[in-house]
Structures are given as structure tokens and as C-alpha cells.
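A.,

Following up on our hallway conversation. C-alpha cells first:
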């Protein structure tokens, strides 16, 4: 395309004006170098998963059949395996107990459920953490030596605890228990663990930085934990106060004014560690263009050698509720992002909608 110079300057001026309306701080051009941009919701297929009252599961704790995904399906994680996209999703029965189901897709858009949950509360040593609320909000990554590492939230009806499990095949799981096991944190509220990974082809592999693996977690402020082996974790604390170090906090006047919570994994790139995060809009001192308590997703950039050091942050959300199935449901006005895969040269983003269904969006690299 060839245009007169004056026309080019005119268009540039318009673009700069639009940028000024949406961002205050880092410029849009600078953000575009590291952030995910231009996700498009797949309106022709969304929502891609919905509840199903026909799915029956024999609950090992109650010893009776339950319609385990009859109430809601939401908040999925995803990975690529054997040329297919595997979606591990949270499902709720009529009692609001959560279990994790599995759906598989050849194209990343149209999924077939496997029928029964693959991860659920059982009569085991972790039952005290998981019953009756269940197991919630999975996030999965690959382990460097093979196999899969899953973080999830256990909920006993009173306290949420960030837990993890490992598997070699996605069907058989070894529960490892809470991530934070010290007496100080074992009964404290914690959830939503996003591990730092590097992309190797279509595989997202947990990455060591300075001899440690790192995980972002939290659902108010964001905190961190580290591990030398992916099995034993320590919370990142201030050496003087012995309190958790906040690495990302809500911002008054923004879409993330009420809380912040990790999205999928945190992606190690040449620009920095990119963390997609979920957020909620506060009742006041908020983004006045969004209803209060709206869940939208933002992005932050952390230092590759010091994962706790925030170096940049997008000033606007990149996805928010604007479809009927995102605006009305179990919880209104929710887009909650937890799944992200690189599949057939595209980024596929999976998210819960109004805590009721699951949808997706696509972006080119």
C-alpha cells in the first residue's frame, strides 16, 4: 500500500489518540512487544462446553451416583498432547461439589467429553481438604523429566487450599497435597497456582530460574512460592516481617481494582515473564466503564532473573464479558481465563463464562 505522507501522518495521529484513550503509562507499542494481543472470541462455537445432566458418576465418598456436571462447567486448563488439545475443566453437581473432567479436541474448538471425572475427592488422606466443596480451578504444565504437574484448589467448605498433583498419562493422578505445608500456612486460605514455564514447540514445560521453579498464587494480591524439585515448596517471604511478599496488587481506578488472581501458567519469554491474570472490578474507586465485580483479564510482565520483580503492566484488560453467556449465569459478568495453548501456529485461550459454561478465543502469534 502506498499513501501520501500527509495521509500517513493523519492516520498515525488517530492511532496515537486512540492509544492515549486506552493507556496511561507504558505505550501501546511497547506493550505489544510482550503482551498477548487481538484475541477473537469464537462466536460460531461458543460456548464450547456446557453442563450435562446425563453424565453420571459413582461418588466414592457418598457411594451413590451423582450428576457430576449437571450444574456448571467452568475454569478449564489445557495442554497439547499427541496432536490434540486436552481440556481439563471444573464441573459442579447440584450440591456444588466440584470435580475435574476431561474433553479432547482435534481442532482445539470442538471437544468431546470423556464421560467421567478424571480427578475428584475420594476416600484418601486428602479427603479432609477436599470434601465437600471438592477440587477446583486446575492449571497444568509439563514437567521437564516427563509427566504433568497440576495445581488445583481444594475446598472443604470453609478454607481453600492451593494443592498439587502429578500424572504420567492425565488419567491416573498422585495427589501431593497442599503446596504450602508449614504450620504457618497449612490452614491459611490459598489458591490458584500458576507455574513459570517455557514453550518448547507446543509443550509448556516448567522452567528453573536460578536453580528454582517458581509459582504465582493468590486471589487478592499475588504472592509467590519456589521449589528446587517441583515437590517441596516454600512461600516467598519478606526476611524482616516474615510475611508473604506481594508481587502484584489491585489498582484503584482500574478494572483490577478489587482483586487479582493468576490465569494459566506464567510464560518465560525474551521480553520477560508474561503473566495473564484474572481480576475483579471493585464496588467503588474502580473502572467506571465496567459493572462492579466484573471479572476481566489483564497482563503483567516480570523480570526473567527475578520473577518477583514487576517490570511492566498493561493498563487495560484484553478480554471482558460482553456476550450473553458471559453476562448472566451462576456469577454474572465473568470471563475467567485459565487455559492457554499454542496449537497449529495459533494461541488458543480457554475461559469460564459467568461460572456456568466454557468459551474460547483465538489469536495469531
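Then the amino acids I'd put at each of the 365 positions:
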Amino acid at each position: 500500500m502506498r499513501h501520501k505522507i500527509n495521509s500517513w501522518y493523519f492516520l498515525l495521529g488517530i492511532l496515537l489518540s486512540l492509544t492515549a484513550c486506552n493507556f496511561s503509562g507504558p505505550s501501546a507499542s511497547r506493550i505489544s512487544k510482550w503482551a498477548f494481543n487481538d484475541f477473537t472470541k469464537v462466536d460460531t462455537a461458543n460456548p464450547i462446553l456446557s453442563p450435562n445432566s446425563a453424565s453420571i458418576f459413582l461418588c466414592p465418598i457418598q457411594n451413590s451416583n451423582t450428576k457430576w456436571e449437571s450444574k456448571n462447567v467452568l475454569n478449564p486448563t489445557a495442554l497439547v498432547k499427541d496432536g490434540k488439545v486436552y481440556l481439563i475443566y471444573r464441573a459442579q453437581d447440584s450440591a456444588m461439589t466440584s470435580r475435574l473432567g476431561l474433553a479432547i479436541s482435534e481442532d482445539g474448538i470442538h471437544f468431546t467429553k470423556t464421560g467421567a471425572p478424571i480427578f475428584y475427592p475420594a476416600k484418601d488422606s486428602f479427603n479432609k481438604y477436599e470434601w465437600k466443596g471438592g477440587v477446583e480451578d486446575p492449571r497444568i504444565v509439563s514437567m521437564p523429566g516427563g509427566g504433568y504437574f497440576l495445581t488445583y484448589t481444594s475446598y472443604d467448605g470453609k478454607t481453600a487450599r492451593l494443592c498439587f498433583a502429578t500424572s504420567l498419562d492425565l488419567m491416573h493422578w498422585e495427589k501431593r497435597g497442599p503446596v504450602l505445608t508449614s504450620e504457618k500456612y497449612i490452614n491459611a486460605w490459598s489458591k490458584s497456582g500458576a507455574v513459570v514455564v517455557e514453550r518448547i514447540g507446543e509443550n509448556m514445560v516448567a522452567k528453573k530460574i536460578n536453580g528454582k521453579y517458581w509459582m504465582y498464587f493468590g486471589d487478592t494480591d499475588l504472592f509467590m512460592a519456589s521449589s528446587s524439585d517441583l515437590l517441596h515448596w516454600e512461600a516467598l517471604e519478606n526476611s524482616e516481617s516474615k510475611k508473604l511478599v506481594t508481587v502484584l496488587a489491585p489498582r484503584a481506578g482500574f478494572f483490577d481494582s478489587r482483586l487479582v488472581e493468576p490465569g494459566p501458567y506464567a510464560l518465560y519469554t525474551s521480553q520477560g515473564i508474561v503473566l495473564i491474570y484474572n481480576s475483579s472490578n471493585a464496588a467503588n474507586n474502580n473502572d467506571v466503564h465496567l459493572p462492579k465485580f466484573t471479572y476481566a483479564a489483564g497482563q503483567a510482565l516480570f523480570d526473567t532473573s527475578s520473577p518477583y520483580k514487576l517490570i511492566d503492566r498493561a493498563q487495560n484488560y484484553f478480554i471482558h464479558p460482553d456476550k450473553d453467556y458471559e453476562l448472566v449465569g451462576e456469577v454474572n459478568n465473568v470471563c475467567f481465563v485459565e487455559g492457554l495453548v499454542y496449537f497449529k501456529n495459533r494461541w488458543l485461550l480457554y475461559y469460564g463464562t459467568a461460572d456456568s459454561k466454557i468459551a474460547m478465543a483465538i489469536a495469531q502469534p
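Residues 26 and 218 are 25 Å apart (CA to CA). Curious whether your intuition agrees with the design.

B.
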